[in-house]
Amino acid sequence: MHNSSGTLADIDPVSAGFDIDRDGFVSYKNSLLFLPPKERGSFRLLLNAWPKVVSKEAFSKNVWAGRMSDESLARCITQLRRGLSNLGVVQIESLYGQGYRLTILSDKVRRLPAIPVTPQSSKSEVAKPHAALIEACIHARQLLERRSLDAFSQAESILKNVVAKAPEYMVAKLLLAQYVAERAFFDGNIQRSQIDDALGELRSVQEAEPYLQGLQSQRGYLLDCQWHFDEAKVAHEQALQMSPDDDVAYYRYGFHLLTSNAPSEAVVALRSAVQLNPFSPNMAVGLVRGYACAGMDPAEVLVHARSTYSSHPDSPSAYVNLLYTLAWVDPQPEVAHAARHFVQKNRYAHALSSRAVAYVLARCGDHAGALEIIEKHSSIHGIHLAALVAMDMLDEAMEKVQAAADTGFGVLPFSISVPECEALKQHPDYPLVHAKVFSRVPRK
Q1: Which of 5, 256, 30, 240 is nearest to 127 (CA)?
Q2: Region 13-112: CATH code
Q3: For 353-378, what is each residue's pLDDT tens digit?
């Protein structure tokens, strides 16, 4: 990296605190930046070229080995901006027809609060895990993004292995906590004790690296899974205060708001997440669900679902969300046929697939098919409530709700908040369940 004396208006990356080690990993003030390979390579290029512009040709040659599309570069820069957002000290400028340039926000560098030196931080080089373990964590995070049962299983195995080999690597512990929360929310195949253990691990992470990006957001996510919405709200707000440009923090806060009966505010948060990361199909699908929960006209929700699938045609979650919305708005035999074909071709390529496909079949008149899926993929957390309600099996659905409420954790708050399950609220047993599930929602 180029180093110069610099002025307040022109401080160089080294003086700002950035460093590139011999393995090519980038650190900021002795804290390793958790960046995937393409983003890491692009950031190295920008750091080494500072203050010059890096052309698209240079990115293609040095990062993509000559096989780069404009869309790939744009996606990479968006993800890189996201990964650097919590630092608050750099910007990546886009110069039309030229390329990209890194800018160091020298006034932000000067104003940053000093991070207290702890025994752990003073040993950063000693505690730093092997490069292969860092790459393993990056792969595990990508697996978690897929949200399929197979991907969850692979990610769990990888992360437990990394934690065993590098117990002081806090990013691995943070990702393992994410795995627990994702399983609790998406398929319910988790024990409450695992959520308690994950929260305990996050307390140790907080002691070691209190400024680690995603820490407070992940804590809020786990607390939401325990229905401790009052504590979760504080954690989510702290996350956004610490990292105001973190798309994941907005996304998790959006779902916190959906599950704690604030759908209009949830749409605002989820829209911010999509604006910060337009390349994420999961965030786009979350916004579509937010629109539905907030009472948007179903036809308009369908427009957004179609747009999301058009923007993410290779995403199983975007496709299943489109089928789900079509069944909700205009149930037709063709939609059920498409759902059956999806299962045959992709099995259950997303953890939400079984509940979505069961709902589609139920809504489109194939009750036998829906009941077969419900029986095969049954869960104590009531993940198939919408399908049961679509078949007018309200008493059976309420039995599932009561059993899920007795567990005290899981996805139930979201499941009974969606418009497809609105009829459940007329059941005579619903008020008691509502009081139990939402007892810790903060008062407005």
Answers
A1: 30
A2: 1.10.10.10
A3: 889 999 999 999 999 999 999 998 88
